[in-house]
């Protein structure tokens, strides 16, 4: 649905648009613009509901959801490092304050989406049934309820609960609402909304409407809800429904999930549309058509600016985040399978090449050989390639504009969530192993089955650093517990890093401190013994180039981490000031 969102309907984000008493006690003195929609003139035709639905989808483009500001949660996990002068630095070391405008941006973006969905859902209940053909009302409502549940899921698992609003405020008093637990918002809103969407949304859309929410997206998200709730039987059943539907299949090339010319492909379950051809010249950070979007009241760009944040400094990017040394080593330690036809002379996995630019990398990066450009300067070793335009352009586009769709849910994620749920529910190693191996085979690396066959039924603990543990990665039995550890510590970070899942994964598993402890042990050893490992992967740094020590990404993080403070963000002060329900 790459379309220019209509400016006049985007005004639906303003609660007082339809209820003037909430905005001006002297509204009887105000002359109304006959061309401005009001509650008396809107919600009268199917087309008006369609346009309103487009604005709900439009909220997905906000930078706090699918763009620049989404990187601040990524910075909290074990996949990222950054320099002290970069904006995410306080998020890497967990010294950000509850009043951070980055956190407020995410909160506001999600609640704008909720507000727009609430308006549509509320008004479609009383709409004249004659304006809809059979099934149209349910499909429109199904999309709105899917999006509302999706926004609420993000709120609940980012902030540890949610302010529960199920109707658009009609007065200032209506703005006040309580903050409820994850359990309450899940049971009262998220599960019923996803169930409604599952019942009423199609499996696929025609090409003109491709990208809208589907049965598969709703089923996947409901499975994710149950996975987070530790209802593994329900979760595994829903994920298997998606798998067995045969609507989706893994792409042959991993990188096809992060390019502009392979969007909405067979692996995509839910993604947010961006288009760099619409509104040329508009800054990429202008993501909505609201009047106060910017001083010039320019239209939304319909693009994302995340590529500029991740892009290389010499090629129009900012290097805002870099891959952590730990992530870098996880990638280069993956053994490729020489019998896999996807490997054509490469020494590392295809998902490394698509995710990171590293000194020992392959292929091209901004049209130059990766091994030449990725020199590990200034203490860096792993630059982020995912979501950038490095695969086809010499530089990141001007004005922070990129048209690469953000994929929020892919089939490989479903495979890994299904494997996790099956192991937790039944301990069925063979079933889980099957789907982990599908993901690994697509990456071109040795499967769990191959490792077990080579080692008498044992598998290596691939998350253990070879530098830190000089005796090598320990072999452990192939059982449910060790395969779960593999999913948590190896498979999900490698397959899904920088896609918005990692921090929430670490929190739901309760392993944040365990992970940070290991990373600090590794980085202290690297720093103390730098001379021993100089010019060796994954550091690939040289004292001759002034690179005396690697970064210390997690030393402060571990000492600062407090689950009660950092697992979830605090409700922003602006909400606390205006919401008497808190």
Overall mean pLDDT: 89
Radius of gyration from the CA trace?
Answer: 24 Å
Envelope shape: globular
Work out the strand percent: 5-15%
| Quaternary assembly | single chain
| Total helical elements | 24
Low-confidence stretches: 1-32, 291-296
Q: Total strand count, please? A: 12
Helix content: 40-55%
Tell me about the biggest sheet?
A: 2 strands, antiparallel
How far apart are the first and last residues' alpha carbons, in Å? 37 Å
Give the strand line-up of the largest sheet. 1-5
User: By helix and strand content, what is the structural category?
Assistant: mainly alpha
Plain-language structure description:
The chain is mainly alpha-helical and 582 residues long. Helix content is 42%, strand content 5%. The chain has helices at 7-10, 46-58, 63-66, 71-74, 89-92, 101-124, 136-159, 182-200, 215-228, 232-244, 306-310, 325-332, 350-355, 370-373, 411-425, 429-443, 448-454, 480-496, 502-509, 512-528, 530-533, 555-560, 563-566, 573-578, and strands at residues 80-81, 162-163, 179-180, 268-272, 322-323, 356-357, 364-365, 368-369, 383-384, 406-410, 458-460, 475-477. The strands form six sheets. The protein has a two-stranded antiparallel sheet. Strands 2-3 form a two-stranded antiparallel sheet. The two termini are 37 Å apart.
């Amino acid at each position: 649905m790459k379309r220019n969102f209509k400016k006049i309907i985007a005004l639906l984000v303003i609660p007082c648009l339809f209820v003037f008493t909430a905005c001006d006690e002297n509204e009887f003195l105000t002359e109304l613009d006959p061309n401005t929609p009001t509650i008396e003139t809107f919600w009268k035709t199917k087309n008006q509901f369609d346009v309103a639905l487009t604005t709900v989808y439009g909220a997905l483009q906000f930078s706090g959801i699918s763009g620049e500001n989404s990187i601040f949660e990524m910075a909290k996990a074990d996949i990222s490092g950054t320099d002290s002068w970069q904006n995410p630095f306080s998020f890497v070391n967990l010294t950000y304050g509850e009043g951070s405008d980055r956190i407020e941006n995410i909160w506001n973006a999600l609640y704008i989406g909720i507000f727009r969905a609430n308006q549509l859902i509320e008004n479609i209940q009383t709409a004249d049934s004659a304006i809809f053909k059979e099934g149209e009302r349910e499909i429109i409502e199904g999309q709105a309820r899917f999006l509302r549940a999706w926004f609420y899921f993000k709120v609940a698992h980012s902030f540890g609960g949610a302010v529960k609003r199920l109707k658009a405020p009609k007065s200032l008093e209506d703005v006040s609402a309580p903050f409820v637990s994850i359990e309450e918002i899940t049971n009262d809103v998220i599960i019923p909304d996803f169930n409604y969407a599952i019942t009423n949304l199609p499996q696929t859309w025609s090409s003109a409407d491709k990208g809208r929410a589907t049965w598969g997206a709703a089923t996947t998200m409901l499975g994710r809800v149950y996975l987070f709730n530790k209802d593994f039987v329900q979760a595994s059943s829903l994920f298997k429904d998606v798998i067995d539907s045969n609507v989706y299949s893994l792409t042959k090339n991993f990188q096809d999930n992060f390019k502009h010319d392979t969007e909405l492909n067979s692996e995509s379950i839910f993604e947010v549309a961006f288009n760099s051809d619409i509104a040329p010249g508009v800054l990429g950070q202008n993501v909505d058509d609201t009047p106060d979007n910017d001083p010039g009241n320019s239209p939304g760009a319909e693009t994302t600016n995340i590529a500029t944040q991740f892009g290389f400094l010499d090629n129009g990017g900012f290097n805002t985040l870099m891959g952590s040394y730990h992530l870098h080593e996880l990638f280069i330690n993956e053994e490729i399978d020489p019998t896999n036809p996807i490997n054509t002379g490469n020494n590392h996995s295809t998902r490394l090449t698509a995710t990171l630019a590293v000194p020992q990398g392959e292929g091209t990066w901004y049209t130059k050989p990766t091994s030449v450009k990725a020199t590990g300067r200034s203490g860096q070793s792993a630059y982020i390639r995912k979501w950038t335009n490095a695969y086809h352009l010499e530089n990141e586009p001007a004005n922070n504009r990129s048209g690469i769709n953000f994929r929020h849910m892919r089939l490989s994620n479903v495979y890994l969530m299904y494997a996790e749920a099956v192991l937790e529910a039944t301990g069925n190693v063979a079933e889980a192993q099957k789907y982990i191996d599908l993901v690994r085979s697509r990456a071109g690396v040795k499967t769990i089955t191959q490792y077990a066959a080579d080692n008498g039924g044992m598998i290596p603990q691939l998350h253990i650093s070879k530098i830190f543990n000089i005796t090598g990665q320990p072999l452990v039995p192939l059982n449910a517990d060790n395969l779960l550890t593999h999913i948590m510590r190896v498979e999900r970070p490698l397959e899904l890093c920088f896609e918005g899942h990692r921090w929430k994964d670490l929190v739901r598993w309760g392993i944040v401190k365990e992970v940070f402890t290991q990373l600090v042990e590794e980085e202290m050893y690297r720093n103390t013994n730098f001379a021993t490992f100089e010019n060796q992967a994954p550091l690939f740094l040289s004292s001759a180039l002034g690179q005396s020590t690697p970064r210390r990404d997690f030393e402060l993080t571990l000492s600062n981490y407090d689950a009660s403070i950092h697992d979830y963000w605090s409700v922003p002060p602006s909400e606390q000031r205006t919401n008497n329900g808190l």
